[in-house]
Each structure stands twice: as structure tokens, then as C-alpha cells.
Amino acid sequence: MTAAPVAIVTGSTSGIGLGVAARLADDGYRVVVNGRQQPKVDAAVQQLAGPARTLAGVAADVTDEVQVARLVDQTTARFGRLDLLVNNAGQPNVAPAEDMTAAAWRATIDIDLTAPFLCAQAAARVMLSQGSGVIINISSIFGRTGNAGRAAYVAAKHGLDGLTKALASEWSPRGIRVCGVNPAYVQTPLVDAAMAAGGFGAAELSRRTPLGRLGTSDEVAALVAFLASPAAAYITGESVAVDGGWLAYGGW
Length: 252
Known about the structure:
The structure is a single chain. By secondary structure, the chain is an alpha/beta fold. It has one domain: NAD(P)-binding Rossmann-like Domain (Rossmann fold, 3-Layer(aba) Sandwich). Helix content is 46%, strand content 15%. It is built from eight helices and seven strands. The chain has a seven-stranded parallel β-sheet, sandwiched between helices. The chain is globular. The N and C termini lie far apart (54 Å). The relative contact order is 0.14.
């Protein structure tokens, strides 16, 4: 009997990550929930728990190489393998470029770009030895376009889309597919914080979006599940938008 596949979802104590973890668990993955603080990780695991779901929780700061290694080591120690990494952990940064501190710039680059690389690197060491695996980077529409007041975030997400292409080119010949997902604004606590910091709201975002609303975590999770599945076996190096038509529409 083939063992169920194993997935790590970083930043999965709330928002998109929590939705992805739930979908993957329902699809039969053994899912490792991750966040920086163990109490929040434990609460998310409890929230996700169900009779047909297999879950574990590992707290780790994914900007820290040592903690990333521990996250992957504890996953393989518990489940024996690693089949899917979803690099979801990230944070927005809304501030005028002329006022942004170097510390704020570095913090955004660290979580939104360096952390996905560190996690991909650690996961790939396991996947390469297996000869198989999938890495999915949760990027943003701002990996493809820009917006005022988001210099660090836009730079990081453009970098993440480029990283997806580079890693796919390097690792796909050895059995690892690497894909990206570019969500638009999704109704999550992080987006709520970004709206508060940026002085805009859901009404403005909905008016700007051809489908007329914000996205949901479940809709992003559905795309992640597809890209991770055998149905997407010939897709690698590609980042797919789930944006309600945001990128297609050039107006405001």
C-alpha cells in the first residue's frame, strides 16, 4: 500500500496557508502546519483536526536557516518523506518608498524572498534523494506588476517569480516540479492589515477587479491542489494568476 503524500505549508496558521493546509489534508496529504509561534501552530492544528485528516505542527521562523532545517528534519522524522512544499509565509509592506527604513526593506525581502529559497533548498535536499517532489511558491499579482507604496513587497514578489523559474530549470530534470501562484487580494487578516495601512478598502478593490470581489483562501487552495496533483505533471516553472481578472484589466 502506497503511503499518503506529505506536505509542509509554511505560514499556515491563518489566511491562505490555513486554507491550503485544509484542502491538502482533505485531498489525503499528511500536512505539517507551520508558523513562528508554537501556540498558534497548535491552535491551527486543533482547528483543522478531523477524522480523515493527518496533521502535525512545527513552529519555525522560516527566515532562519537553522529553524528551516529543523522544520524539514522533524517532518521527515515523523512521516518518512516530503512530497510537497508550499512556500506561503509572507507579509505585506505598505509605505512610501522615500520613508522606508533599510530594516523594513530587509525584513520584507527576508520573509517574502529569502525564506522561500531557504525552505525550497532544504526541501529539495529530501526530494532530490527521493527523485520526486513539488514546490509551490505563493507569490502575488505584484510579482507581475507594480503599485505605489509597495517597493519592497513588489521587489520581493518579482524575485520570487524569478526564483520559481530558476529552480524549475535546475531541479525539474531531477524530478522536482516548481510552480508559483499569483493571487490578487484575498480576504485574509494580512489583507485586512494592508488595507488599514494603505487607506483603502474592499469596495475599491472589488470595483477594480473584473469579477467584482476579493478572492477566497479556498480558491487559492484549489489552484495549489491542482498544481500539486498528477493532473499538472507537465507544468513547471510557471506562475499562475488567481486574481479575478486583475492583471487582465488595465484601468482603475
